[in-house]
Amino acid sequence: MTGDFNPSTPELLAGNAAFARDFEGARMPAAPARRLAVVACMDARIDVARILGLHVGEAHIIRNAGGVITDDVIRSLCLSQRLLGTREVVLVHHTGCGLQSLDEQRFLSELETETGIRPSWPFEAFTDPYDNVAESMRRLHSSPFLPCKDHIRGFVYDVADGKLYEVGAPAS
């Protein structure tokens, strides 16, 4: 990686100081008020709470590249459900995701060439975000570690229009 880089940490610490001056969250419970967990992509264009109209304390928000249901996401959801009472899971993937254009085998080979080690984990590249949400929903439904599977819904957020499009919408 090349180019100029200006670390953001000093600005982040100034932002935290301003936040702490008006901090009112000390008495907020750890369990999310809506009993909701959201799994979403880490894409910087996606403000998950704002897209869903959520406020602090209402949901667990779990993010990773692609919003993929990995073992670590299952681990987090297991704790969210079993220890903190969440009962609903919402998936938010999106159009124009970087994983859609990733040549996974090439990327893995490049990493191995550069580091001498091939990662043990997949990047989980995909071509269609709708198919990927459907696969993520299947993974959640098949996990023996998640006791609450009756309220799992998946959506694709369109970065062009800001709307959510449901995948496998329940019959009305």
What does this structure look like?
This protein is α/β, with parallel strands linked by helices. Strand 1, helix 2 and strand 2 form a beta-alpha-beta unit. The protein contains 5 helices and 5 strands, in the order H-E-H-E-H-E-H-H-E-E. The longest helix is centred in the middle third of the chain and has 14 residues.
Summary of the model, kept short:
This protein has helices at residues 9-21, 48-52, 71-84, 104-115, 129-142; strands at 36-41, 59-64, 88-94, 152-157, 164-167. The protein is α/β, with parallel strands linked by helices.
Describe the secondary structure blueprint for this structure.
Layout: H1 9-21, E1 36-41, H2 48-52, E2 59-64, H3 71-84, E3 88-94, H4 104-115, H5 129-142, E4 152-157, E5 164-167
Parallel strand pairs: 1-2, 1-3, 3-4
Antiparallel strand pairs: 4-5
Main attributes of the structure:
single chain, about 170 residues, alpha/beta, 5-stranded mixed β-sheet, 5 helices, about 15% strand
Could you give the order of the helices and strands? HEHEHEHHEE
Q: How many H/I helical runs?
A: 5
Structural class: alpha/beta
Strand order of the largest sheet: 2-1-3-4-5
Strand content: 15-25%
C-alpha termini separation = 50 Å
Helix fraction by DSSP (H/I, runs of at least 4)? 25-40%
**Poorly predicted tracts of residues:** none
Average pLDDT value?
A: 94
Shape: globular
Radius of gyration: 18 Å
What composes the largest sheet?
5 strands, mixed
Total DSSP E strands: 5
